[in-house]
Amino acid sequence: MEMKGSPSHHKFYMPAEWNLHAQTWMGWPEREDNWREKARPAQRAFVEVAAAISQFEPVTVCASSDQWENARNQLPANVRVLEMSSNDAWFRDTGPTFVVLDKLQTSTENIREIAGIRWTFNSWGGLDGGCFSDWRMDQLIARKILDAERVPQFSHTMVLEGGSIHVDGEGTCITTEECLLHPNRNPGLTKDNIEEELKQYLGVEKVIWLPRGLYGDSDTNGHVDNICCFVRPGVVLLHWVDDESDPQYERSLEAFNVLSKTTDASGRTLQVIPLHAPGPLYSTVEEVGGLVPHDAKPRVANARLAATYVNFYIANGGIVAPAFGDIPRDSAAEKVLQAAFPDREVVMISSAREILLGGGNVHCITQQQPAAFCALPTSPRRIEDGDKVKQAFYDSLLNVSVLLN
């Protein structure tokens, strides 16, 4: 059902990622010009991510007709695989942004109506620096997901990717000027115009603008989910480097200066937790040599990769985060994440470099669908094998998109 007006007009808003999910949506990589060696290493990485998330909540992976059987054979049996065509597998950016309307609140549960936003997608910049020249199938992914779930839909002509925004669910959004104000997105809109649209469609009251994103993140023009994210209202994690000669240092410092001197929509001064960077990491001749050039943005050897631990996913009771094979730094990042999310289990993805080589990481390839119940008296941290009661509850969430129409 197509909804008229903006989400905020109907009292919808985007909930925080740590709210209870009905499921996670993912795509399936197959482009040989963006994923090396016929995408086989990347597919193994996607399987690792999907398997990790499926310990905490249902997962749906969407694969093309040519790849459906391959995906089904590789993915765990508890992961649903749907046939869906796409230009690539970045469902954070091509999938819908889900919003919710709180309909009924009691002492034990909060029942929500779910809707979705279909933004306009132009391959991270269209023909002016975008990642590929044909994005027609990706432009339909949000609609296909919402149609499949029978979720009411809002549409917007503004170009926006899900990785360019983070919200706290209490009225605050963080984004970057480098991305949202880039001329290859919405050249006809001013900063004030874009901020007003974010307020109308995300249901936020305040937008915090960081000047720039991660150094080397040319694919997305500085998505915020690579440099900063909310841990909880009033607290953020910030990608950090100590080396003042590193080109990222200036970017992280300017972000820190903005965050530490601003307040959120509730008037709280933000607490900033540094999450130290891996690397720096660079692409290798072997990795680039495994690509088949065609339509995607060319990859070159010895290019600095946009590696960050901030690009993690918050699942029901879990944190699924990238690891890069640097044991001391990976371990340090895991400890920071565990301290930031003491009630969640941290799972590090050992094959995350393969996702990084394609232009993003764990958060970029996942999209959460909120549950119709945003709070319950008890909620399992992990779906244990053989626990039929817990599994039945999570299975039921797959079939509940909208309550109390």
Explain how this protein is built.
With about 400 residues, the protein is α/β, with parallel strands linked by helices. It has one domain: L-arginine/glycine Amidinotransferase, Chain A, CATH 3.75.10. Helix content is about 25%, strand content about 20%. The chain is built from eleven helices and 16 strands. It has helices spanning about 40-55, 70-75, 90-95, 140-150, 175-180, 190-200, 245-260, 285-290, 325-340, 350-360, 390-400; strands at about 20-25, 60-65, 80-85, 95-105, 110-120, 155-160, 165, 170-175, 205-210, 230, 235-240, 270-275, 315, 320, 345-350, 365-370. The chain has a four-stranded mixed sheet. Helix 1 crosses helix 10 (about 350-360). The protein is globular, with a radius of gyration of 20 Å. The protein starts with 20 loop residues before the first strand and ends in a 7-residue tail after the last helix. Mean pLDDT is about 90; it is low at about 375-380 and about 385-405. InterPro entries: Agmatine_deiminase, Peptidyl-Arg-deiminase_porph. This is Agmatine deiminase. Keywords: Hydrolase. It comes from Sphagnum troendelagicum. Pfam families: PAD_porph.
